[in-house]
Amino acid sequence: MEKQIASTNLHQPEEVNLDYSLAGYDYQLPPELIAQNPVFPRDSSRLLVVNSPTTGQGTAPLHQIFRDLPDLLRAGDLLIINDTKVIPARLYGRKSTGAEIEVLLLEERKYNCWLALVKPGKRFKIGTKIVFPPRELGINPTDTQPLTATVLETDKATGGRLLEFDVPEGKPLLEVLDQFGEIPLPPYITTSTAADEQYQTVYAQQPGAIAAPTAGLHFTPELLAQLGDRGINQAFITLHVGIGTFRPVEIENVTNHQMHEEWISVPPATVEKIRATKAAGGRVIAVGTTAVRALEGAAKSGDLQPFGGKTDLFIYPGYEWRVVDGLITNFHLPRSSLMMLVSALISRERLINIYQEAIAAQYRFYSFGDAMLILPEAKGLPS
C-alpha cells in the first residue's frame, strides 16, 4: 500500500494513505484513447483480463476479445445484469423571454415533477416557465403540442431544480419524452456518430437511467445465448444510473464523499439465483459497477435480501464484500467513485498499474470503450 509524506501546518511530516486520497486515483489519459464511437459488432471490443492476485503487480494481464467471455468463465457462474434503459433526458427549450436553456432530467420526485440539472442555472428562478418544442424526428410540430414546465424549487444537494411538467393530455412525461428529448451522451463524447440504440444495452427494459450501464454495451444476443449454452447463467437487477454514478469526487479525503442516492431493484428471483449459485460453488460476476452497487446495497445489512428503493452506497478500499465475486467493467475516469469501487476489489495500486498497461496497449477508454474482466481468483490484495 503506497503512502506519501504531506506537510501539516506545524511543518511536521504526516503519512497520507493514497487509498483514501483523491490524488491516489489520478492518471493521465491521451485524449485520442477516449472512445467516440462503439465498435461493431459490440462483442468485438477488446477485453483486458485480470486473472491472478498478482495481475498489475508482477504479472501482466491477458489481452482478449469480449466474445471470448464464454471461455473465461465457468459453467455454474452467474452474470448479474442491469436492465435499466436510458431515457431521452436532455431537453432544449426557451423561457418566455426567448432565452435558450438546456435541461438534464435526473429523476422523477413525484408525478410529472422531475429533478433536473439546468443550464444556465441563474436563469432558472422559482416560477420560471419553460417551453420545450418537439424534436423534428418525423413528428409534425403542428400536430404535437409543446411541452411546458414550471420551476418549483432549488435542490441544494445537486444544484438542480425541481420542474413540474404540464404534459399534453395529462400523460406521464416518460410516455411523450421521445418526442421532446434526446439521449444524453457523456460530455467527453464530442464527435460521436452513434445511433441512440448503440447507447442502450441489448437487454434494456426498465426506463429511468440518464446514462448507460456501459459494461453491458459489449453484449450481443448471440453472445448471451452462447453463455447460456455453456451453463453460464444470467439474472437481472435494475439500477437507474443517475448523478450518483457520474458526478466526480471532489473531496481530497475520499472517505468523506457522499454519494447521491440512486434507485435500485433486486428482485426475489435474482436473490434466489444468487443463493443457489453460491450453494453449488458457482461465482457471482457483476456486469458493471451499477450491478455491484445494487447487489451490495441490497446486502447492506449483512445478508442479501430482495430490495426495492434507493441506495447511496459508496464502495472504496477496505470494503467488506458480501455478494460479488468478480466484475466486468469499462475503464473509468480519473478520480471517480467508480475507480474507487474497482480498487476495493483488487487494490488501488494494482488498478493504476493495470490502467497504465491498458494505455500502453492502446485500449479505448470510457463509455464506448473496451472492457476489463476481473475474475474471482484475482480478487483481493497481492500476497
Question: Considering DSSP H and I runs of 4 or more, what fraction of the residues is helical?
Answer: 10-25%
Can you tell me the residue ranges where pLDDT is under 50 for at least 5 consecutive residues? 1-10
Structural class by sheet pairing and helices: alpha+beta
Largest sheet: 9 strands, mixed
Shape: globular
Evaluate the radius of gyration.
22 Å
For the record, give the distance between the C-alpha atoms at the N and C termini, rounded to a whole number: 12 Å
InterPro entries: QueA, QueA_dom1, QueA_dom2, QueA_sf
EC number: 2.4.99.17
Pfam families: Queuosine_synth
Subcellular location: Cytoplasm
Task: Describe the protein in words.
Residues 1-10 have low confidence and may be disordered. The strands form 4 sheets. A 9-stranded mixed sheet has the order 4-3-19-18-16-5-14-15-17. The protein has a 6-stranded antiparallel β-barrel with strand order 7-8-9-12-11-10. The chain has a two-stranded antiparallel ribbon with strand order 1-2. Helix 7 (337-346) packs across helix 8 (348-360). Helices cover 18% and strands 27% of the residues. It has 383 residues and is α+β, with helices and mostly antiparallel strands. It is built from 8 helices and 19 strands.
